[in-house]
């Protein structure tokens, strides 16, 4: 592509990216407010059993996440590097806290 055409294409896709980011940010801003009425409606329709099922799902998700993080990921660190998993997790702790707090 020539220089001028390249700038036009890059400008177009840059504009599309900016528009998509704007739409996604608006949806993410409204999402917590929109989820509450949906959960209220589900609770009214199906009773409190649905909340108990969601809590069970959350518990299973957490257990699976812990098993993956410390089991699979920790084993991979031990096998494929000379670093102990304890040291690795201790070293990346601050980065994980920053990543979690900026979501």
TrEMBL record:
Q: Name one GO cellular component term.
A: plasma membrane
What's a single GO BP term from this record?
A: dicarboxylic acid transport
UniProt keyword Iron, yes or no: no
Q: How does it sit in the membrane?
A: Multi-pass membrane protein
| Protein localization | Cell membrane
Keyword Methyltransferase among record annotations:
no
GO MF: symporter activity
Q: Where are the transmembrane segments?
A: 12-31, 51-73
- Name the record gives this protein: Cation:dicarboxylase symporter family transporter
């Amino acid at each position: 592509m020539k220089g001028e055409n390249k700038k036009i294409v890059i400008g177009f896709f840059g504009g599309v990216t900016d528009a998509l980011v704007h739409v996604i940010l608006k949806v993410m801003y409204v999402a917590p407010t929109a989820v509450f009425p949906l959960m209220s409606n589900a609770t009214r329709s199906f009773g409190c059993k649905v909340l108990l099922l969601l809590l069970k799902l959350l518990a299973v998700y957490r257990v699976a996440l812990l098993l993956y993080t410390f089991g699979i990921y920790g084993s991979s660190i031990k096998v494929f590097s000379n670093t102990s998993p304890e040291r690795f997790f201790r070293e990346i702790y601050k980065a994980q806290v920053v990543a979690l707090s900026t979501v």
